[in-house]
Amino acid sequence: MATRAPSTHRRSDATKAAILEAARERFAADGYERATIRSIARDANIDPSMVMRYYGNKEGLFAAASVIDLRMPELGAVSGRHIGAVLVGHFLDRWERDDVLTALLRVGATNEAGAGRMRAVFAEQLGPVAAAVCPDPAEAPRRAALVTSQLLGMALARYVLRIEPAVSMDRDELIAWLAPVIQRYLTAGQP
After folding, report:
1. pTM
2. Burial grade of 180 (CB within 10 A; 0-12, 13-18, 19 or more)
3. For the segment 17-57, what is each residue's pLDDT rounded down to a tens digit?
4. What is the C-alpha to C-alpha distance for residues 101 and 179, in angstroms, rounded to an integer?
């Protein structure tokens, strides 16, 4: 079996990285439906056949471009009454620094592939956090869905729709308003 030369491997890694960067930007700007393989290839300065070679089709490219690690905080050392504040602060920091999350939210609002990807990211990454801190781990999926509704609702209002005063509220204000709700969803007994 032949192996690739190191320079060929580096070139293909650089090409894949350029494609993914262009795809993230194009999906964020145009949404899933309007983004095309040709426009993404043009943005990456490559032939469209290279996009197809590495990712197969637009769905495969979107799946690769929307791989997101939410880098959930370790809550084991956090006082139980501060879990909501830590999570809200974490997500505000993530939304402020990660255009991929905003792009995925935009696409998820209008396209089933994007919605599916968003559901998977939150279920796989927020679900275990909810299970670790809620009173009954069997309730974790329900509680994680409630937390997700608050976090995505604020992200949609603040970063996508740009609704005032959600946009102009500072970080501390948002944490003060949202943290008690998130805290309740995760740690309070059932209503």
Report:
1. 0.80
2. middle
3. 999 999 988 987 888 889 999 999 999 999 999 999 999 99
4. 20
**In the structure encoding, which two tokens stand for residue 89, read together?**
């602060």
Looking at the chain, the number of H-run helices and the number of E-run strands are 9, 0
Nearest to 178 by CA among 153, 143, 142, 156: 153
Residue 184: both structure tokens together: 């309740």
- List the domain range (segments joined by +) for residue 14: 6-65
pLDDT tens digits along 137-173: 999 999 999 999 999 999 999 998 999 999 999 999 9
Q: Are residues 88 and 166 in the same domain?
A: yes
The pair of three-digit structure tokens given for residue 123, joined into one six-digit string:
């279920």
List, in order, residues 6 or more apart from 179 with CB less than 8 Å away.
84, 85, 87, 88
- Cα–Cα dist 42/96, whole Å: 28
Structurally, how many domains does the chain consist of? 2
Contacts of 28 (CB under 8 A, 6+ apart): 99, 100, 102, 103, 106
